[in-house]
Amino acid sequence: PAVVQAVIEACLKNGAVPAQNGEFSKRAFVNGKQNLTNAEGIIEMIEAETASAAKAGAALMENKLGKKIVDLQDRLLDLVSAGEVVLDYPEEDLEMPTGKQILHTLQEIRDNLDGLIRTSTLGKVARYGIDVAIVGAPNVGKSSLLNALLAEDRAIVSDICGTTRDTLKESVGYKDIKFNFVDTAGLRKTENVIEQEGIKRAIAAANSADVVLNVTDNPADRSVFPTIKPQIRVFNKCDLYAELPCCDDSLIVSAKSGNVDVIKETLYDMFCAGDIQSADVMVTSERHLECLKRAESEINDAIAAANATTMDIVVTSMKQAWATLGEVTGTSATEDVIDRIYSKFCLGK
């Protein structure tokens, strides 16, 4: 509106400065009212597309991860302080933790870090969902299966081999998570350059997915898709059979009739998605995961040093781990990292 614009221009003319993205939240961080995990939790809640993603974001905003990080930092700081005293005052007869006690505490910290790192698998499912590639020979019903899973006609379907030339990615919610399905070109030997490119993209999609649906319409087909990713054999077009063939190693479905929920339920159980609602803390951020892995490596360095070298090397590794953990909450994060996080907020907030 013209009046609002005129007021804004008058304010700017008289010295007001436009608020930057996340400026007020960043001020709260600078003044110790929140840490980086709180801010990232707010962002995750805003961006959440499922109940699980919202839950993970809320836990982050409530500082559940931050509290665990601070606790680990406090334990490390106690060890560093004890180590510094031993190094600075070797002649004093002070009651300090023994080398065995320091080693035991370091191992406990490492185990706690490992536990947090392992939650990242479930955290990824909660925040981003499960990436599922649908692969198979031409005309086995991959595109029809995608449409049935989405409950809408999203992919073009025909009896002509090679109809699907490129990957088609669509997401659908199921219970409290989402599945990111990728329809791919039919796999076969071909001289068609465009179809060859489609097959290349199909293989790439399968290799980047969390799991592969290997679709066939032949109950005798036991071919395995060449990938290191877990795969589920899906026997499609069961509606064409008066009596269902024996396919103990396959999910038997009919994209035409729409009975495909068994696929969703199998995927849900396969990734233990039901554990999300009962999980206290999940690592959902690649930034957090990278920091935790580095800290664990530095703790392992300290453990190795405690077994083989002098206390000064142990203390150095513990200090590095303490600083790395501080990057998660922001106590030792660089200004670039802090700016990048708050830039994801809307103007002002």
Architecture overview:
With 349 residues, the chain is an alpha/beta fold. The protein has two domains: 162 residues, tRNA modification GTPase MnmE domain 2 (Four Helix Bundle (Hemerythrin (Met), subunit A)), CATH 1.20.120; 146 residues, Rossmann fold, CATH 3.40.50.300. The protein is built from 13 helices and six strands. It has a six-stranded mixed sheet, sandwiched between helices. α3 runs antiparallel to α4, α6 packs antiparallel against α11 and α11 runs antiparallel to α12. The radius of gyration is 27 Å and the shape is globular. The model has no long low-confidence stretch (mean pLDDT 87).
Q: What is the 3D form?
A: globular
The named CATH superfamily of the largest domain: tRNA modification GTPase MnmE domain 2
* Number of distinct helices: 13
Helical coverage, percent range: 40-55%
Beta-strand residue fraction = 5-15%
Query: Could you give the order of strands across the largest sheet?
Result: 2-3-1-4-5-6
Could you give the distance between the termini? 22 Å
Order of helices and strands: HHHHHHHEHEEHEEEHHHH
Low-confidence stretches: none
The largest β sheet comes out as: 6 strands, mixed
Number of strands: 6
Topology-level CATH name of the largest domain: Four Helix Bundle (Hemerythrin (Met), subunit A)
Which class of secondary structure composition applies to the elements?
Answer: alpha/beta
Write down the Rg: 27 Å
Mean pLDDT, nearest integer?
87
Number of domains: 2
CATH architecture of the largest domain: Up-down Bundle
CATH class of the largest domain: Mainly Alpha
